[in-house]
Design brief:
Spore Coat Polysaccharide Biosynthesis Protein SpsA, Chain A; two-stranded antiparallel sheet; 6 helices; 20% helix; transferase; Molybde_CF_guanTrfase; magnesium
Length: 194
């Protein structure tokens, strides 16, 4: 299933991996690193890291200075975004599929963000203009909701249509997350227009 929607992709690969214990992006799941699994899904992703990494395709952006979290990584990645929409994720969503990102970015809203028990700002599609205009005003990506005129909270009921097992929502923060899948709350999609 392809939606032919044009968007850029930023993969954040520069976290501290404190809960995981080692660099998550280099951890192998079924003989592939979590980062390489994501790289296979997208044509020319922008990978933002705190250290040099070998990537087979895409653009590698190495952050300088102190670690300041995902917002700093997004700010660095935005310098290379050329399209009106950008899908943002972290390397710790190793089961994310391109069709999932295509579906979210096919929606014509400022933010399209999955919502199960809470919004997932590191697995969402954003208007590049919204990001560029407001990135210096926020400490966390979820704060962009306040600056947006349209936010589509995409619920699990709708996401089941494109990812029946909701694997794309699996966030790996510890080894345990590879074994135990959280019970997903059944949520409905909700559009907010201001």
């Amino acid at each position: 299933m392809s939606y032919n929607y044009s968007y850029d992709v930023i993969i954040l690969a520069g976290g501290l991996s404190k809960r995981f214990g080692i660099d998550k992006c280099c951890f192998e799941v079924n003989s592939k690193t979590m980062l390489s699994r994501l790289l296979e899904q997208f044509d020319n992703p922008i990978v933002v890291s705190r250290s040099s990494r070998r990537i087979k395709k895409g653009i590698l952006v190495v952050e300088n200075g102190e670690y300041e979290g995902p917002v700093k990584g997004v700010k660095e990645g935005l310098k290379y975004v050329r399209r009106d929409r950008v899908f943002i994720t972290g390397c710790d969503f190793p089961f994310l599929t391109r069709s999932f990102a295509d579906y979210l970015c096919s929606k014509p809203y400022d933010i399209v963000i999955p919502f199960d028990d809470r919004p997932q700002p590191l697995l969402a599609c954003y208007s590049t203009g919204l990001l560029s205009e407001n990135i210096d005003k926020i400490n966390g990506l979820v704060e962009l909701i306040e600056f947006s005129s349209t936010v589509y909270f995409i619920g699990t009921e709708e996401l089941f249509k494109i990812d029946p097992l909701l694997y794309s929502l699996i966030n790996i923060n510890s080894i345990i997350d590879l074994i135990y899948r959280p019970i997903r709350i059944k949520t409905r999609s909700n559009l907010i227009i201001r």
